[in-house]
Design goal:
Protein name: ABC transporter ATP-binding protein
Keywords: ATP-binding, Cell membrane, Ion transport, Iron, Iron transport, Membrane, Nucleotide-binding, Transport
Bound molecules: adenosine-5'-triphosphate
Strand content: 25-35%
Pfam family, one: ABC_tran
Number of strands: 22
GO molecular function, one term: ATP hydrolysis activity
Number of helices: 8
Helix content: 10-25%
Organism: Pseudidiomarina donghaiensis
Distance between the termini: 70 Å
CATH class of the largest domain: Alpha Beta
Shape: globular
Length: about 375
Amino acid sequence: MHISFGAQHIVRGVSLMLEQGEIGCLLGPSGCGKTTLLRAIAGFQNLQSGSIQIDSNEVSNNNYTLPAEKRGVGMVFQDFALFPHLNVADNISFGMRKASSQERRQRVDELLDRVGLPGYHKRFPHELSGGQQQRIALARALAPKPGLLLLDEPFSSLDAELRERLAVEVRELLKKEGITALLVTHDQQEAFAMADKAGVMYQGELLQWDTPYQLYHQPRHQLVADFIGHGVLLQGTVNTEGSLASPLGMLEHPSLQQVAAGTPVSFLVRPDDVVPDDNSRLRGTIKARGFRGAHNLYTVELPSGIEILTLSPSHEGFSVGSDIGLRPEFDHLVVFAADHCELPGFHDQAPTVQPLPSVLPKAKSA
Ligand SMILES: Nc1ncnc2c1ncn2[C@@H]1O[C@H](COP(=O)(O)OP(=O)(O)OP(=O)(O)O)[C@@H](O)[C@H]1O
């Protein structure tokens, strides 16, 4: 689909699909078009081209937009938006006007149980914490059993710990209800905790739509690799023997035989691709240490001046400024060509790495 505001192309050639009951997440930097795409699916935004189908019914195309209230779509936004003058039970049953009062009561009871707030019927929104309000907002959106639930940064005003816990709870709830959902977030931990499928948008384009595992381990575009998880991209040149000269050493992989000698490429190095090893000849100096609970994340400068990241259990800390040995331990390679797109064929096998003369320690004088 394509969406423009005047001459500005905000969503460009985006195509994605969710199966019944799947949860999708759209990630991407601010202003990349995530909310605009969600608003189009909700029916608040016209398309310039393409189409949107919900349950095989075409609800939008370039000259038709089915009104939002006829789409059977539920929505949850960042700012909760509960009705302040209605109690919890009335907030939840608000969208169930066609149901009998007994059906409404049953559904309110069931949803309050499912969001972990049984007995909260008579409370008013101002008597609830932020996390409780967001659970009620979710229960309200789920009450009419929508065919599709859209969530726009639903947890962004909550603190990090609560956000992660709610993301897991909401996933369980959506799975129990069998609801198809699409979530917009900038928080990749939230996306990883919730999504069956996730995508990274950049300047209106959807660069990849895949499982969270594949986005992390098999990014198809350099910008996806950059956006998802920690890591650095190292530059290298393919030489005539089909190996890759890089700051970590000479990488050898069968797929390099398919790449013309002299081709400049970049490859992804995640913190877990390089492990501290005292006996390794590849050395570096620790420039920074970040505490991540179970692990420390270190920024290490190589003799070439290039910085890479590595992880180590936080109880075996190295201090900033110390010299450490590093051993590349790739499970597979992710290699990008000059156009930033991934080169195929590097996932199935680990490369071998031979140290370069420049990373060998200087001979000790006798
Ligand atoms: N009604 C509008 N008229 C003109 N431009 C708009 C309109 N709505 C959004 N835009 C522009 O479209 C672009 C994408 O906005 P959108 O809200 O979809 O981004 P986003 O990815 O959701 O960002 P964020 O993560 O900051 O919420 C932005 O440059 C924004 O200024």
